[in-house]
Amino acid sequence: MSSAKYNRVVLKLSGEALAGSLGFGLDPEVIKSVSEQVKEVAELGVEVAVVVGGGNIWRGKVGSEMGMDRATADYMGMLATVMNSLALQDSLETQGIETRVQTSIEMRQVAEPYIRRRAIRHLEKKRVVIFAAGTGNPYFSTDTTAALRAAEIEAEVILMGKNNVDGVYSADPLKDANAIKYEELSYLDVLKEGLAVMDSTASSLCMDNDIPLIVFSIMEKGNIKRAVMGETIGTIVRGK
Q1: Which amino acid positions bind UMP, per UniProt (predicted)?
Q2: Is residue 2 annotated as involved in ligand binding?
Q3: Is residue 24 annotated as involved in ligand binding?
Q4: Which residues neighbour 63 within 8 Å (Cβ) at sequence distance 6 or greater?
Q5: Is 77 contained in some domain?
Q6: Residue ranges making up the domain that contains 174
Q7: In this predicted model, what pLDDT tens digit does every residue of 128-174 receive, in sequence order?
Q8: The CATH number of the domain where 61 resides is what?
Q9: 172 has binding-site annotation
Q10: 141 assigned binding-site residue
Q11: Measured between alpha carbons, how far is 197 from 185 in angstroms, rounded to an integer?
Q12: 175 pLDDT band (50/70/90 cuts)?
């Protein structure tokens, strides 16, 4: 085993991160950069699971605000995450990294159904596993999916890669020049102050299961490896 601090991690990517500067859809350069960074970590012997959002294609909340049935809008968002997951799988396998996509909604022609023991076995065989279609239920975000899957597979940390910030701030740093960057927070701090890290359901789940979270910029190459090696980057959220 390498000198990595963590042996099994969940990497959470927002759909917006995969859109890059395009703002919508998939940016091939961003996907290639992410897959190269994941490869760098996988080659250290670290077991990597990935949870991908779908906001670059469709957001259930937006559909609901347009008058669409919320459950229907959320299911559409789950399908968007599958599209992103397949794109990432293709890029990873182009890099020579064996990858499996598991979906919470069965679609056997394109991916495996999510089975916890099978996912763990893939990880033990050093395959990258991408969890798609959220939890399979409406009203839950992919942040909650990341927290749930991390607990289920006993991951040691969740790595949350962002595309427009390099950590957790007291306010939106793009709008407030006086926003303060935090180096370390507790989940209670996040919940009390309403910080835009992850939704309250996901934060509570991480807190209850004692899963630390590292928030960092995915756009800077090598950051996933730095986080896995235990270097101080971004913001770490842990404990109570």
Answers
A1: 54, 74, 135-142
A2: no
A3: no
A4: 70, 72, 73, 76, 77
A5: yes
A6: 8-238
A7: 999 999 999 999 999 999 999 999 999 999 999 988 788 999 888 88
A8: 3.40.1160.10
A9: yes
A10: yes
A11: 11
A12: confident
74 assigned ligand-binding residue: yes
Q: Is 99 a known ligand-binding residue? A: no
Q: Quick check: is 124 in a domain?
A: yes
Split into its structural domains, the chain has a count of 1
**Residue 163 marked in a binding site:** yes
Q: What is the C-alpha separation between 21 and 12, in angstroms, rounded?
A: 19
Q: Which strands, in side-by-side order, build the sheet including 157-162? A: 112-113, 99-103, 128-132, 47-52, 8-13, 157-162, 213-217, 235-238, 184-186
Residue 139 is assigned to a ligand binding site? yes
pLDDT at 127 over 90: yes
136 annotated to bind ligand: yes
Does some domain include residue 199?
Answer: yes
The answer for residues whose C-beta is within 8 angstroms of residue 208's C-beta and 6 or more apart is: none
User: Any known ligand binding at 167?
Assistant: no
Ligand-binding site membership of 21 (annotated): no
Find out whether 142 is annotated in a ligand binding site.
yes
Q: Give the residue among 121, 161, 100 at the shortest CA–CA distance from 8.
A: 121
Indicate the pTM of the whole model: 0.94
| 1 part of a folded domain | no
223 annotated binding-site participant: no
**Is 54 annotated in some ligand binding site?**
yes
